[in-house]
Write a structure and sequence with these properties.
single chain, about 170 residues, mainly beta, 7-stranded mixed sheet, 3-stranded parallel sheet, 1 helix
Length: about 170
């Protein structure tokens, strides 16, 4: 489990790992690491580029706490070894390219509170099978799931009035 000391925190955002946080990845001999992010009072965001290109050597699963409401642009993008993400119960916004090019991310449960997914949020990931977009989603960015070749079925909610251009291009 991660602690507040393992993370760089500024204002209301987690900005990345401290040196002790980085050493958890480097010094762990396991093939699969699950990182449980702590619930830090006043912190509601995973910041822009916070964990971009961090998970390249070992398979990593992420569990976010309930206080996180926003995942900003490129927060977890370009991580070839990010295998899973579990969102907390209050996540509302997933930013532009937040998980782009995370090819080991093969399944996705968006939960029941996500309202908005940005441009290319899950583009070029390894998501396979059925994707259920929850009733809470009212906004989906262009190219949101572009190049997700393993999708076999997508269920849309009535709340989503517009499926934007290229949302599922080359799927």
């Amino acid at each position: 489990n991660l602690s507040e000391d393992d993370l760089v925190v500024a204002d209301d955002s987690i900005k990345g790992f401290t040196s002790t946080g980085s050493s958890i990845l480097i010094n762990n001999a396991a093939d699969q690491i699950i990182l449980n992010f702590p619930d830090i009072p006043g912190v509601t965001k995973i910041g822009e580029n916070a964990f971009n290109e961090h998970f390249t050597d070992k398979n990593v699963g992420i569990q976010l706490p309930n206080n996180i409401t926003t995942i900003e642009e490129n927060a977890f993008s370009d991580n070839p070894k990010l295998t899973s993400i579990k969102f907390g119960d209050n996540l509302q916004t997933i930013g532009k390219f937040a998980f782009r090019n995370d090819k080991a991310l093969t399944s996705l449960d968006l939960g029941s509170t996500v309202r908005s997914m940005g441009y290319g949020a899950f583009a070029d990931t390894g998501i396979t099978g059925e994707l259920i977009i929850p009733d809470s989603v009212t906004n989906m960015g262009e190219s949101c799931f572009c190049d997700v070749k393993g999708l076999t079925k997508v269920t849309f909610p009535a709340s989503l009035k517009i499926i934007p251009p290229y949302a599922f291009y080359q799927c």
